[in-house]
């Protein structure tokens, strides 16, 4: 075996040395950002994986003796950063076809005039094409686990779980939307007719999906995804909360994303949004509240006391002019803050590495304090905090012996990442998803040298284009480029 120290390589060992057990994968060299309890950073490190589990983490010179020649797959990562797979805590899979469809609109107009009319016209095969596109993008940009915020019946959730999630190799907590009203905050009858479902129907279908898929392959979990206040009755919110606790599963919901949310809960219930959520049972360690922008100190303390996670989505908040989440205050007061990209029309990318940079830059602007948030905190938000949000930190979110091997590598031998003075700073401020080289999920190679091994990339791109063409035509929404410039 000849090693070329100047180029990343992979060696498949086909000879098993008698009496010496073989491990599955050995990542050799580079920086290892562990996110373990001591937050160790190992220069010139290595990681060994066997049967989906991390079996050794340490210095390359120490691990080489046991793993260099005794692994089925040996990957040179000497010019790469090895880190835990990213956890995206807010994803709309069916919005992958909707990028650029609703620029320059505030949230409620954005929803009612463009996004919901399109989503209300989806057919199952189109929703599947969108889900595959989004999952492909997430894998290629380093996300190994995500939280889908809410599927509805017209999308064909069974098909999405079976054909997109399970076949791709990614991990996912999949929330199913539950609703029994049609409003959004202060606006009545806001929801598109194509998305309206009966409370009993949407609730029972969530239970059906739970019994069919929850825990399948140790990679899929079914959550409740109640719609925002205005679309769900108090009785149904409380029923969701009680049932989620009984089933030991999670709940995710948008909350306090815009000022109208505060106006609605104060007007109708005399409570601010987080107080309202707590009143109906939607706080706790099994709850991920999304956006959570318009909140007070008292509400932040309530989130911390109840162990409720906040999913911060800075790009979406900026594009829709929703406001700035008080992330630095939340972290200081003990709230578990994780990171999400949101969807295609509110972010235009599902690249969580890009999101890390925006999260890091937005807080100093909000607080007028350059020290408002550190890069270490942002990396935690994208990894171990996300795993904790999904109740999976015992299994993923860090590189530690005994945990499942959800690991990505970042190629830093590029102009925008050289010189590598500070790998943590470079990850947050300089890197993007295009720098992800390889992805391992549950100990399996899902992407190697930028090639996704579980999905047909060319076919997915072609199917997404066809699906978008049909969807926009059916919804009566023009796909022509929106610009003030002249097109000839």
Give a verbal description of the structure.
Residues 1-8 and 13-20 have low confidence and may be disordered. The termini are far apart. The protein folds into 2 domains: 10-84 and 399-450, Urease, subunit C, domain 1 (Roll), CATH 2.30.40.10; 86-389, Metal-dependent hydrolases (TIM Barrel, Alpha-Beta Barrel). By secondary structure, the protein is α/β, with parallel strands linked by helices. The chain has 17 helices and 20 strands. Helix content is 37%, strand content 21%.
Summarize the structure.
The protein has two domains: 10-84 and 399-450, Urease, subunit C, domain 1 (Roll), CATH 2.30.40.10; 86-389, Metal-dependent hydrolases (TIM Barrel).
> Which architecture of the largest domain would the CATH scheme give at its second level?
Alpha-Beta Barrel
Counted beta strands = 20
Compute the number of helices.
17
Distance between the termini: 58 Å
């Amino acid at each position: 075996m000849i090693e070329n120290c100047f180029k990343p390589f992979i060696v498949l060992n086909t000879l098993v040395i008698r009496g010496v057990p073989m491990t599955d994968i050995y990542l050799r060299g580079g920086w290892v950002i562990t996110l373990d309890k001591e937050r160790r950073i190992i220069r010139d490190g290595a990681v060994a994986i066997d049967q989906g589990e991390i079996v050794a983490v340490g210095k390359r010179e120490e691990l080489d003796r046991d793993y260099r020649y005794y692994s089925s797959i040996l990957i040179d990562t000497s010019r790469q950063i090895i880190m835990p797979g990213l956890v995206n805590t807010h994803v709309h899979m069916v919005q992958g076809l909707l990028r650029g469809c609703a620029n320059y609109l505030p949230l409620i107009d954005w929803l009612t005039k463009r996004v919901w009319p399109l989503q209300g016209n989806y057919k199952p095969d189109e929703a599947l094409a969108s889900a595959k596109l989004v999952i492909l993008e997430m894998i290629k940009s380093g996300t190994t686990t995500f939280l889908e915020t809410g599927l509805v019946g017209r999308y064909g959730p069974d098909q999405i779980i079976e054909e997109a999630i399970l076949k791709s190799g990614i991990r996912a907590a999949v929330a199913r939307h539950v609703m029994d009203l049609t409003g959004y905050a202060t606006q009545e009858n806001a929801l598109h007719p194509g998305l309206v479902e009966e409370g009993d129907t949407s609730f029972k279908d969530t239970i059906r999906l739970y019994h069919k898929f929850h825990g399948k392959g140790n990679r899929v979990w079914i959550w409740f995804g109640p719609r925002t206040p205005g679309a769900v009755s108090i009785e149904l919110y409380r029923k969701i909360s009680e049932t989620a606790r009984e089933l030991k599963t999670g709940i995710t919901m948008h909350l306090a994303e815009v000022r109208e949310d505060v106006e609605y809960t104060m007007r109708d219930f005399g409570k601010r949004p987080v107080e309202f959520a707590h009143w109906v049972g939607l706080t706790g360690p099994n709850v991920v509240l999304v956006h959570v922008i318009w909140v007070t100190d008292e509400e932040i303390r309530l989130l911390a006391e109840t162990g409720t996670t906040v999913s911060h989505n800075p790009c979406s908040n900026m594009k829709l002019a929703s406001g700035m989440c008080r992330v630095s205050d939340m972290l200081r007061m003990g709230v578990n803050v994780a990171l999400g990209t949101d969807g295609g029309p509110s972010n235009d990318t599902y690249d969580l590495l890009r999101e890390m940079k925006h999260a890091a830059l937005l807080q100093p602007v909000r607080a007028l304090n350059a020290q408002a948030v550190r890069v270490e905190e942002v990396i935690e938000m994208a990894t171990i905090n996300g795993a904790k949000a999904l109740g999976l930190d015992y299994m993923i979110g860090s590189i530690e012996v005994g945990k499942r091997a959800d690991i990505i590598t970042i190629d830093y031998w590029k102009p925008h990442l050289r010189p590598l003075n500070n790998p943590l700073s470079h990850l947050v401020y300089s890197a993007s998803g295009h720098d992800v080289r390889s992805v391992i999920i549950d100990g399996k190679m899902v992407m190697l040298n930028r090639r996704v091994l579980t999905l047909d990339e060319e076919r997915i791109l072609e199917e997404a284009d066809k699906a978008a063409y049909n969807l926009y035509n059916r919804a009566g929404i023009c796909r022509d480029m929106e610009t003030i410039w002249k097109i000839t």
